[in-house]
User: What shape does this take?
Amino acid sequence: MKPRVVPGPGQESVWDYPRPPRAEPFSGHIQVLVGDVTIADTTRAIRVLETSHPPVYYIPPEDVQLMHLRPTRGSSFCEWKGTAAYFDIVIGDRRIERVAWCYPSPTASFGSLKDHVAFYAHLVDECLVDGERARPQAGGFYGGWITSSVVGPFKGE
Assistant: This one.
């Protein structure tokens, strides 16, 4: 693995994030776009921080255009958060499969994530954090968003 990057002013190192992970409120501006449709837009996200991972942003359902989400098959299990349910996005004739997930019944430690929706940055057209386009964490399974405010190296690289 590459050596740890020393964070500069205003940056965080993912190697300073906790394990087990922590969920915390994030008041920055989060947006998820598909084509010309804003799927999610919030200043009330919750970010999950875990050692070696860039933040994963969970958006309250009230700030997601739920009419474009369709429940899909399958689930996954996180030892910390519980069982995740997945969604496709459908906009007109366009379908993006397994692009988002949520925890309908999270563990007690992550109760604040209940029904909040997270999106894979590599599957949507744009994910923005305070106006900066986030790049996806490497590896198709990971859901972290990388911006200039976090340094790695990141799990999955």
